[in-house]
Design brief:
heterotrimer; A alpha/beta (93); B mainly alpha (78); C alpha+beta (371); A: 93 residues; alpha/beta; 3-stranded parallel β-sheet; 2 helices; 24% strand; elongated; B: 78 residues; mainly alpha; two-stranded parallel sheet; 2 strands; 12% strand; globular
Amino acid sequence: MQPIYDPRGVVSAETKALAPRVRSLDGLRLAVLDNTKWNANKLLREVRDRLQGGHALGAVSYYRKESFSRFAAPELVARIRAENDIALTAIGD
Amino acid sequence: MHDAIGLETLGVPTAVIVTTAFVHEARMQREALGMKSIVPVVIDHPLSSLSDEEIRGRAAQALGQVIGVWHGTQADPP
Amino acid sequence: MSAQLATPAATQVPEGTDLVEWYYERGFSDGLPVVPPTPTKLAAMLEALGGDPEKIETRVPPRWGCLTREVLAVNMVMAGCKPEYAPVVRAAMLALCEPAFNLNGVQATTHMCSPLLVVNGPVARKIGMNGGCNAFGSGNRANATIGRAIRLVLLNVGGGWPGDLDKATLGHPGKYTYAVAENEALGLLAPYHVEKGFKADDSTVFVMAAEPPHSVTNHVANDPQGILDSICSAMSTIAHNNAVSSGHCAVVLGPEHAASIAKHGWKREDIRNYLWMNSGNKFGALAFNHRYGKVYNRSLPVWYKRELDSHIPIVPSAQHIHLFVIGGDAGRFSAFIPGWGHMSSPVLREIEGHAGAAQSSARCIDGTCYL
């Protein structure tokens, strides 16, 4: 017998829980996070307008990432959390 | 995915929209980042080259899924 | 709680199994045959890495696989590395996984970029890297296998498989290997790492997401301006990614060109400033004269004027041009190496265990620390 080796290494991550789901959107503060990729803004605005048309959201705030490719800055994420109850983000393409 | 998972971890239910070409990567990322149960909203690829009319179509495609993600009723993409 | 880590299960296959084919069939190859690891080779590689096989050096995106020392050793042996290359490969992987580099983006992008590695300092000569004739080509084991080991890690541990998480439309040959040393022996200009604040006898790795080199021929000029004008010409196109996505780029001076420039007393800063000042595009060319509508390119800095005849630099400053002297003695050629864009910053990092005699100095990320 001769040994063979797996060059991939394991993927191990702490399991994180989802945030609790919501029953109604009424009165909730919505964050719209634009990752600035092409047409993300247009798509998000269309979805936002439809949401506002069909639900009594408490507030809607719009945020943009500094760079479409990098992860959002921790300060931006913290600010979004502090000011909102639900979030919508795009686009992964 | 990374940003959405960051927000969910802080307690904010987040609907993240990806195109069909990106679903595999989204699955890899949520697994690698430890949040297998986050459900993406999926629209047809592409988005970047679409007209305004076509973008409105994608928004219509996304709307129900977005609300479903926040309610917890949206199924994982097949 | 994090999942329990395990070293890669060393399973067994029957004697007489074609191991080269076995690794191919498992999908662990970059397309070329790999060297099947053996316990002896792995032990030697691990020792060179400092032992402790389960120690996690870093996690590699976009799969975020754990790069333990053992897994790094496996990939290095597969690439054909000698144990003495280990500090260089490790330093390169740590540099690539710095958040500023954005390896996640570099791996996944539709752009063809691949990490370019340039090694400075005594370690390059010690392990026999090539910074001279045909440095970007083949024929040198250190260059070939160090670059290859990095790519195998990016594939196997990082999951950056073409058509899967690596969406590059075209790719380029640097995705097999893209590692060189600077030609410091010629002493024509100060070495790159010294310009950035390290001591000459420190050894460093520089990584940048890069397109292939674009050859620049000039067999006519014997002064800085003529030579650099040819390089400016190669830079001044709307086709490469810096033109539309900003960021960093590299310029390689071949020794004949470098000698002519150095003879006129020009220093690194003079060269980079001249290149920056005399290269660029007209905004109208980048915007196709609004033929497709007026579109605001957010990738370019806000302070660029967006009028049709505005001058748009290739990169935002001379500090965004990373200058190296590389190549053989004969031939009046240099090269322009475009980068990916503002989405990734180059990283310069010391190679551990290879600091110079005195206390090692600055660590520079994004190439802006400058003496």
